[in-house]
Each structure stands twice: as C-alpha cells, then as structure tokens.
C-alpha cells in the first residue's frame, strides 16, 4: 500500500512522462529462473476479496472493483488485472506478475498463484511481488504509463533469505533497463 501511496504522491509532485518500477520478485515458474529479469505485460492483484486458499474469491469476481473510476463509469474502473506496456523489443511478452499482500510461504500457495492467469496461458504468471499492482493502479489513475521489470531473486515460497540472489537479480534488472531507448 505504501508503494501505491508514494507513487501517487511522486506523480503529483514530479509529473513524469512514465514510471518504471524496477526491483525483485519471487519466481513462480521455470521460465523465471533465479537471476533472470523480465518485463511484465500484465499484473494481477491477489489476496483482496473473501476467503483464503482454494476458497478465495477475488474482489473483481464479487463485482467489487479496486477503483470504481472517476465518475463511476466502467470505462476507467480497475478490477483485479491491469495491462502494462513493455519495451518494443519485448512486445510479444505475455509475462504476468501477481502482486500479493503476503508472499508465498509454501509450494501449494505458489502453485495456486500460477493458476491465476485465467484467459492468458497459465505459463504467463511467472512471478510474484508486493508492489506492482498498487504502483500500476496509481499510474492508471493519473494516466501515467507504467512499465514493470523484475529480477527474480528467489523461488516463490523459499523463505530462507540466505538462498536469495538479490544482487544477481538487480544486475539482471540493470541489463533490462539498459535495453530501453
């Protein structure tokens, strides 16, 4: 939540042409190997709704929008998913990131999150983080384009921080950022 609030504040103060969220995430799939970095064409909010585990029902599934829009019209309302622009050289990307309130603590939860893709292929959901949906939502609400690049520091569900490869993940993010025009 702090990421969304501080993004909204920074956009109001600095009025950027675009926002690029760069950082780390936990990998949910073999295609998101530790030490790799990925641009994301979409982000899904998970954990806001009713129930938990397999009984969880998302806010959007309950017809509750994350944001109703400027005048209550559905044309600019925000549900549980947002599409994101990606750099031209990765325009074919279907990578989807899931933003969560609490990171996966076990393999079963990571597996459930991989299945959130719905209409995109299941393999599209490759990583989880805690900030991207809130930041992307703040950007959408201010009509500021938002791009997201995440370096994979760990396998989602691995809570042993001694196994995490944060430096390697950040180096991979730097490489992706260097690809921008």
From TrEMBL:
<dbReference type="GO" id="GO:0019284">
    <property type="term" value="P:L-methionine salvage from S-adenosylmethionine"/>
</dbReference>
<dbReference type="GO" id="GO:0005829">
    <property type="term" value="C:cytosol"/>
</dbReference>
<dbReference type="GO" id="GO:0009116">
    <property type="term" value="P:nucleoside metabolic process"/>
</dbReference>
<protein>
    <recommendedName>
        <fullName>Futalosine hydrolase</fullName>
        <ecNumber>3.2.2.26</ecNumber>
    </recommendedName>
</protein>
<dbReference type="InterPro" id="IPR035994">
    <property type="entry name" value="Nucleoside_phosphorylase_sf"/>
</dbReference>
<dbReference type="GO" id="GO:0009234">
    <property type="term" value="P:menaquinone biosynthetic process"/>
</dbReference>
<dbReference type="GO" id="GO:0008782">
    <property type="term" value="F:adenosylhomocysteine nucleosidase activity"/>
</dbReference>
<dbReference type="GO" id="GO:0008930">
    <property type="term" value="F:methylthioadenosine nucleosidase activity"/>
</dbReference>
<dbReference type="InterPro" id="IPR019963">
    <property type="entry name" value="FL_hydrolase_MqnB"/>
</dbReference>
